[in-house]
Amino acid sequence: MLSLNPQLSIPIHKLFRVASSQKTDPEILVGLLSPGKNSWVRNIVCKNPSTPIAPVLTLLQECLLKRVAISQLLLLNPSPITAIWLEKEDLDTLVQSIAQHPLLPINYQEKLSHDSSFYVRTGVAKNPSTAPKILEKLSRDKSNKVRIAVASNPKTPYKILISLVKGSNTPLKISLARNQNLPKRLSFLLQDEPSTTVRYHLAQNQHADKKTLTFLSKAPERFVRERVAANPKTPSSVLEKLLKERSTRIRRAVINNLSTPTSILLTAQSKRKIPKTLEDSFRERIGESINL
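^ thats the sequence. predicted structure below, dont judge the formating
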């Protein structure tokens, strides 16, 4: 369990590591939530599953009260000083982080899903612990960024993901293509997308269906095929074909792919199919003892 010496000045990059580690002592994490601490550190702590939920909820109540007070100031002064706007943004960002805590109770999820700030609603949409009924509501949110967050959530139910495909824009489809719990049907729907960027992200998703990866291995764009060549879930038969590509980048990706069977590489080497430009990559992958 990680701990801190209060007598030492801790570099900010180490504080980030402590704040994000689930091995950090919960008491240390609670201490990092103090008002005087770095705002980015506090944001990270709020999302850490090891941070006790009680002090996080206390902080949430404080933030919500401060936001109400700032809203009243803004009504009185439509052109406030920059500091007030900055404080409002900091509070919105902190509440967004709290919304991503995995132990956030459902009543708070519901409350924050109606928040006026799309930042906060995005935090709820990103949280894998958010209730399906709330994700379903957020999938129809007026903010595209909120819908994108729902599309990226690995716990978003299948029916909601499928509903997001229909009539969605390219950024949203990119988020769907990157989803780490990609359903087979969604994989099939996205593989025919005209957007090269969508197919690029789909090709490197390790949860894409193998039939989709096989389909994308024949894509006209070289960089899409390269992503398929680097994907550890790509079938070995497809990797064998990609190793015969003219593109050095694609062949290097196949060689560096740890899922490529050694037998395929050795066969290519025996047939003098490994060019000199790839000898270093080949030796590093197979072993220094191989003579090319």
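Residues 63 and 91 are 6 Å apart (CA to CA).
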